[in-house]
Structure formats: structure tokens, C-alpha cells
Amino acid sequence: MIDWILRLLKGALIGTGFILPGVSGGALAAVFGLYERIISFIAHITKDFIKNILFFIPVVTGALFGMFLLARPLSFFLENYEVQVVWGFIGCITGTLPSLWKEAGKKGRKKIHYAILAASALAGFCLLYMAENFWQVHMPRNFITWVISGALIALGVLVPGLSSSNFLVYLDMYKPMVDAFKTIEIPVLLPIFLGSIACLFSLSAFIDMLFRRAYAGLFHFVAGIVLASTVMIVPVNYNYISYGTIMCVAALVAGALLGLWMSSLEEKYKT
Prior knowledge:
α7 (143-158) runs antiparallel to α8 and α7 (143-158) runs parallel beside α10. This protein has helices spanning 2-19, 25-31, 35-43, 49-69, 71-104, 111-133, 143-158, 164-170, 174-183, 186-213, 215-232, 244-269. The protein is mainly alpha-helical. The mean pLDDT is 80. The protein is globular. It has one domain (2-269). 43% of the residues are buried.
């Protein structure tokens, strides 16, 4: 039961990562110890099908909860307490980084892996910085563009550190998407779902193959991207001398404690 609840909570946080700008659902899946298993399940859908379905029921339930039921309050808190919410996520990610580092070195760690970590962190930071500051286009909202939006969300799962919501903001698709989750607009959600499924099943086998052939290298690459994406979401345009400073620190500490707690439970109840 504790394991089930833990996966439900992880799923909820991953779900909010899909709709929270600057946060990667894939990065959260990685730091919560679910990324590799998600990729393996999608790439080999018929292998241990029932066992995997039972394992992912609380994860998917939590993700749906995070995306749909929390869309309205999340929108409220982002509008009124955006900095505090982001610091809470930063704390949560930070608290799980030791577990991610341990996982990356599970099959050995060489000098080349440190180089991969540094290179991916630097490249990820540069790419995300350019995307945030220079790439801004607008797309019409129709069935095709919503399918593309769904594919971007799926890429946020397949590529940890890639914030799909950021790209949707650049494409002027983010706010309509969040509104669709709040009001459950089927004409919008259906193409998003189709785009996500198509992207997941078309690329997951390739990523799973990379894991099997270069586990340590790929996981250190993932860790570097997670570090870069975490640095990128640090709020900078904010007056920290104001009354909100204590709330930001409290959110950071609470998030870190939550991350450490989930990591400890993951070690204890790992399946």
C-alpha cells in the first residue's frame, strides 16, 4: 500500500511537470526512479504486460490527477505564487538528485561519464537558454497543431530535461492547453492524446536500445540535462528582499525534504 501511494504521488508530480512551464515530466520521472521502466514498458509493450499495467495504474492515475484535477489550483498558484511553486519543484528535484546520481553509477562510472555529464549539462543549458530567449513563434490552433503539441508533451517524457510546456508557451499553445485540461475540452485533448501516443511508441524503442547498450553513458547524459533544466527554472527576475523570500526558502526546504523522503521510500520499496 505504501508503495502504491508513493507511485500515486510520483505520478501526480510528474503530471504537473507536463503542464508547469520550465519543469520536465521526463526529468521528474528520472529523479523519481520511473524513467527507465516507463521507456522499457512502452518499447516492449507485450512483455510482462499485466505486471506492468498493475505497476503503472497508480502512476497514470496520479499523472491524470496532476494534469486535470490540479490544473485549476495550479493555475491559481502559478498566477499568484509562481516563484514559490517553482522553488518547491526545485527543492523536490534537488532532494532526489543523490538518488539519480546513485542510479547513474549503478553499472559503473568512468572518466568519460563525467565528461558526458558536463557536456550534456552545458549543451542542455545553452539549448534551453536559446529556446527561452530567442525562439518564439505562433501557430494556429487546429487538430494538426494540437497533435504536434501532444508530441511535444511526449518528448518531455522521452527526453528528461526538455520542458514541453516551455515550447508550448513559445508557440502560444500553452494557456489554451491548460484551459482545455481545466474544462476537459475533448476536441483539444483528443489530438493531444493521439500525438503523445504516436511519439511515445515511435521513439521509445530507440531510447530503450540506447539504455541497453550504453546504460551509464545515457544516464549520465540524463543527469546532465536534469541539472541544466533545474538551473534554468530558477526564478531570477524577482525581488527576493520582499516578503516572499521566507516563503521561497520554506518551499525549497519542503520540496527538498519531500524529494529525500520519496527517494528513501523508493530505496525501501523499489520494485
